From TrEMBL, chains A, B:
<dbReference type="InterPro" id="IPR052166">
    <property type="entry name" value="Diverse_Acyl-CoA_DH"/>
</dbReference>
<dbReference type="Pfam" id="PF00441">
    <property type="entry name" value="Acyl-CoA_dh_1"/>
</dbReference>
<feature type="domain" description="Acyl-CoA oxidase/dehydrogenase middle">
    <location>
        <begin position="161"/>
        <end position="263"/>
    </location>
</feature>
<feature type="domain" description="Acyl-CoA dehydrogenase/oxidase N-terminal">
    <location>
        <begin position="73"/>
        <end position="156"/>
    </location>
</feature>
<dbReference type="Pfam" id="PF02770">
    <property type="entry name" value="Acyl-CoA_dh_M"/>
</dbReference>
<dbReference type="GO" id="GO:0016627">
    <property type="term" value="F:oxidoreductase activity, acting on the CH-CH group of donors"/>
</dbReference>
<dbReference type="GO" id="GO:0050660">
    <property type="term" value="F:flavin adenine dinucleotide binding"/>
</dbReference>
<keyword id="KW-0560">Oxidoreductase</keyword>
<keyword id="KW-0285">Flavoprotein</keyword>
<dbReference type="InterPro" id="IPR046373">
    <property type="entry name" value="Acyl-CoA_Oxase/DH_mid-dom_sf"/>
</dbReference>
<dbReference type="InterPro" id="IPR025878">
    <property type="entry name" value="Acyl-CoA_dh-like_C_dom"/>
</dbReference>
<dbReference type="InterPro" id="IPR009075">
    <property type="entry name" value="AcylCo_DH/oxidase_C"/>
</dbReference>
<comment type="function">
    <text>Involved in the assimilation of dimethylsulphoniopropionate (DMSP), an important compound in the fixation of carbon in marine phytoplankton, by mediating the conversion of 3-(methylthio)propanoyl-CoA (MMPA-CoA) to 3-(methylthio)acryloyl-CoA (MTA-CoA).</text>
</comment>
<dbReference type="InterPro" id="IPR037069">
    <property type="entry name" value="AcylCoA_DH/ox_N_sf"/>
</dbReference>
<protein>
    <recommendedName>
        <fullName>3-methylmercaptopropionyl-CoA dehydrogenase</fullName>
        <ecNumber>1.3.99.41</ecNumber>
    </recommendedName>
</protein>
<dbReference type="Pfam" id="PF12806">
    <property type="entry name" value="Acyl-CoA_dh_C"/>
</dbReference>
<comment type="similarity">
    <text>Belongs to the acyl-CoA dehydrogenase family.</text>
</comment>
């Protein structure tokens, strides 16, 4: 079972939900055309399907053995990585001044989805490199940029993010890695970092580590953290004092090496400051926000892959007889209502998560490219709100869809040979790294809802309402109860948002934090449901204009399924958010044993 | 991290939710006393925690290598199995005439939960043996009973269920294994079976296979299937013509050998008919119903284990600062509202699933032991309704709770060493085997709801309403909105049930099947929520009577959490059931690509 990127649906979502058509019209993307976007997507789809997808199971089985500090990547991976970088995929979103193509985050997001759907363990590495490029571009000194950016943009070298230490995970204020100024502008870095993705590998000759550490006189907590660039190989060609001391044996993404990195046990690793002293967290957050969207895309990606595999199996596998089929013998299980429900749930959830991720990417583009400052700020706030939703909702969907994919396979799903189980194993990490989904929910509620005094989130909700009104006006019976169900979901979100803003302003903000996770889910259902409806409206308009592509009818059916069968969870989630915080007092008792 | 069976909560649930006190009072269980039940549970808890739990990870790592048709179980397993059987645990529910203790299914269910929580791959073997004992007791000839029952009851030998063939999974009508009468009362069995749990192992000297096969003149489909007993070692001490030809490499339960069994490639395996010719499926369903409850208990078990591990981690792990804590430095993550929510969701879901499983077990006991035929029939119908809910709801909960357990651990949850990931891997199968959860939902809707013209399910719903009324009358503020939220859930279930019964009777029963899965979930929420409320009411009464055990307050808090934060999904599920079937027409289009 291979992977075929759903190019038509990706492009349709980009154009009609994430606003690509509109952005191209107004000149936001320079001379980029829809045709060019399509041909890039088709080229990417070919590479993902033909080169990366076949290496997915090989990677899972081989893992990344560590010996004497060196890691051997699985067979075929080095060649695939070089072909991928040489084809320009790593440079696609990179800065033009350093050899990048400067193409939109929106387009790159569709590509990131493809790489990760084909092979999540492969796709993860470039996510880190791209984040580092962004951080260096924005905050690196000209010398550092000159020395590192071109090779990172081309993919000749890769990069890592070094945040976590054993005592400092979600709470980075606790980190202990130290940086001592040498006097020549460089620093000696000493400390241990864990869970460093692609911290060591043999895909490239050098690896550029971005490392959070404390200067000697740094204040305690998160205000005393600085960011350093620490290359594996120093500019003079010698090895830096950094090594991989161990790798984790993980549930999934076996081919993505997760390293314990030791800095400076030979006297200090040489590094250079990136950005201002003690402001490392701000730079890292830039990198992390980019990575958070990419991780959300991993959720979409693994869901799409799991869906394609389950769909294919359900068409082939014959068991029982369905009422709707007249043929002799056993019928394909896709004909059974319960299997249909599973497949539609998978497809609709995936499409909703994709729409949210692409909307986030488009808002990020606009926050950089918009003409005036107000539009930039509005887009930045929109991206800020959507990023935690894109990350957490999509990765939860990734797990759920991969799990349903196993279920569709029945007993065969539990057998590793089938491949369905690998998707579930791989998907599980995305809800954890780059800030657990619980952290995303807190970020959404505590930091993002209050942006512009709540106006930013209100603007998003107003747009959702606009889409619902559009469905109501459309009148095509194929929409079923889409408008009614989405309206309920959006109104639930609106009331829950008011509750959250009020609770945050009260003297007991834990009332808001207690409901952060169900609130984020509710947000995803309303935003995802209306995004699918927006696509369906565009499809409906195309049909009215005479287009006969059956995919248009499918888009309406999918929006309807989501509204009638998934968005209906919104009301219960609203109750949980607004009235479920009673557990805050009860918990110490209830969890005592 | 070891496992401690929650004996107090198990016993409380048995007594006050599953009706153990009442059953003892009316003499249903002979001279069984609550004290005896408690001491048996405590003894079982000791064995589970001290002997079985430490072997869980060993089993996961070693697996069950197959060489020359023989399987080597992991280190320590053979000794543990013998100690377990010698302590009488296998014989606990077995028939007294054959050395069993004849103790209730309810009590055994709590024990089954313990074995599986401690070590699911270990606990699975006896589930099959106990099912075979029940089938043989009810349908075996005296000769077969005499030859096999005693050794199966003692655990000296184990048993298997052989249903699945490559082309016959959920659809057993398609099976091809053949049985030819020899003329001396025995049969020659020829065919291949897959996914045979504990089909081969070195725990015992003999293995008794129960095998579905077709007689030469059998009608096609499910009405032409007979059941045969085929021992690994024949009565004369020679090896039978049956062998393990392969084992599956699975996502989880690595220490439970999943075998491909080949019967008769040396001319025919010798077997004997169990029950009537062509009535094998009825016998197998008896066995399978027993096994379905046991699999539901596995869901509860793995959820409990995952909860205990996550709770322990959340108390130890320190990250960030919580508003509710004054202490210096970082605070245990259990103090963060979002982590509290995760842990309470885990605990409340687990308790609800446990209550449903124990209720099912109690109904099974009553269906055998009740004094008059009407009471027996009513109990049988209740058990019939609850069994698919116990199986599917609990195993879904098992997966969800195990997945949340990984999440509570953050990055460490994804590292296999921690053990949290194993629970998720192990839990995943329970939603698939013994009839996928989709099959359970169809069974509930299509076969169980219509029992006694719908009166059986109405009686259950009436009891749920009674509990809600009890909460309303109780008046203790600690219940919060429990009554209101549970009332909504029960009324949603009631309306959805009416819809289902009507749809089944219509000429388009697919309208019912389309909503079977969300209906079963809705059933679980209403039944589970009211069961927790019933326990909470008993706790409230105990407190009013002067008992000061803090567990009583915790029971009320848990029921409240479930009602206010989980049962609230009921209304949306009702909508899905009653109005979401629009996808039946849309699906062919929406799933075309």
């Amino acid at each position: 079972m291979t992977y075929r990127a759903p190019v038509a649906d990706m492009l349709f979502t980009m154009r009609h939900v994430a606003g690509l058509d509109h952005a191209i019209e107004e000149g936001l993307y320079g001379d980029l055309s829809t045709d060019l976007v399509q041909s890039i997507l088709e080229e990417g789809a070919r590479f993902a399907g033909e080169v990366l997808a076949p290496l997915n199971r090989i990677g899972d089985q081989h893992g990344t053995p560590l010996k004497d500090g060196a890691i051997t990547m699985p067979p075929g991976w080095r060649e695939a990585y070089h072909a991928w970088a040489q084809a320009g995929w790593n440079a696609l979103p990179g800065p033009v001044d350093y050899g990048g193509q400067g193409l939109p985050t929106l387009l790159n997001s569709a590509c990131v989805e493809m790489w990760n759907a084909a092979n999540m363990a492969f796709g993860l590495g470039p996510v880190l490199t791209m984040g580092a490029i962004e951080a260096l571009t924005a905050h690196g000194s000209d010398e550092l940029k000159g020395r590192y950016l071109e090779k990172l943009v081309s993919g000749e070298w890769t990069a890592t993010m070094n945040l976590t230490e054993p005592q400092a995970g979600s709470d980075l204020g606790a980190l202990r890695t130290r940086a001592e100024p040498v006097g020549d502008g460089s620093y000696k870095i000493t400390g241990q970092k864990i869970y460093i993705t692609y911290g060591e590998h043999d895909l490239t000759d050098n690896i550029v580590h971005l490392v959070l550490a404390r200067l000697p006189d740094a204040p305690a907590g998160t205000r005393g953290i600085s960011l350093f660039l620490v290359p594996k190989v120093l500019p003079d060609g010698t090895r830096n004092d950094v090594r991989c001391a161990g790798i984790e044996h993980k549930l999934g993404i076996h081919a993505s090496p997760t390293c314990t990195m030791v800095y400076g046990d030979g006297g200090g690793a040489t590094g250079w400051l990136v950005g201002e002293a003690n402001r490392g967290l701000a730079v890292m957050f830039l990198m992390m926000n980019n990575a958070r969207l990419a991780v959300g895309l991993q959720g979409v990606a693994i869901a799409e892959r799991a869906y394609q595999q389950a769909l294919s199996y359900a068409k082939d596998r014959r068991q029982g007889r369905a009422r709707t089929v007249q043929a002799e013998g056993m019928h394909p299980i896709i004909e059974h209502p319960d299997v249909k429900r599973m497949l539609l749930t998978m497809k609709a959830s995936t499409a909703a998560a994709r729409a949210i991720c692409y909307m986030t990417a488009a808002a990020l583009d606009r926050s950089h490219l918009a003409g005036d400052a107000d539009a930039k700020r509005a887009a930045h706030e929109r991206a800020s709100i959507l990023t935690p939703v894109a990350k957490a909702f999509s990765t939860d969907i990734g797990i759920e869809v991969a799990s349903t994919g196993v279920q569709v396979h029945g007993g065969m799903g539990f057998v590793e040979e089938t491949g369905a189980a690998q998707h579930l194993r791989d998907a599980r990490i995305a809800a954890i790294y780059e800030g657990t989904n619980g952290i995303q929910a807190i970020d959404l509620v505590a930091r993002k809802l209050p942006l512009s005094g709540g106006e930013a989130v209100r603007a998003l909700i107003a747009e959702m309402r606009g889409t619902v009104t559009g469905v109501t006006k459309n009148g095509d019976a194929a929409f079923g109860d889409t408008a009614a169900r989405l309206r309920e979901a959006v109104e639930s979100l609106d009331r829950a948002t008011s509750f959250m803003l009020k609770a945050l302003a009260s003297n007991d903000p834990d009332q808001a934090l207690a409901g952060a996770t169900p609130y984020l889910r509710l947000f995803g259902l309303a935003q995802g449901g209306t995004a699918l409806a927006k696509a369906a409206l565009a499809a409906s308009a195309a049909m009215k204009a005479g287009e006969t592509d059956p995919a248009h009818g499918a888009r309406i059916a999918l929006a309807r399924f989501f509204a009638e069968n998934l968005a209906i969870g919104a009301r219960g989630l609203e109750d949980t958010v607004t009235a479920g915080a009673g557990f805050l007092q009860d918990a110490p008792l209830a969890l005592a044993s």
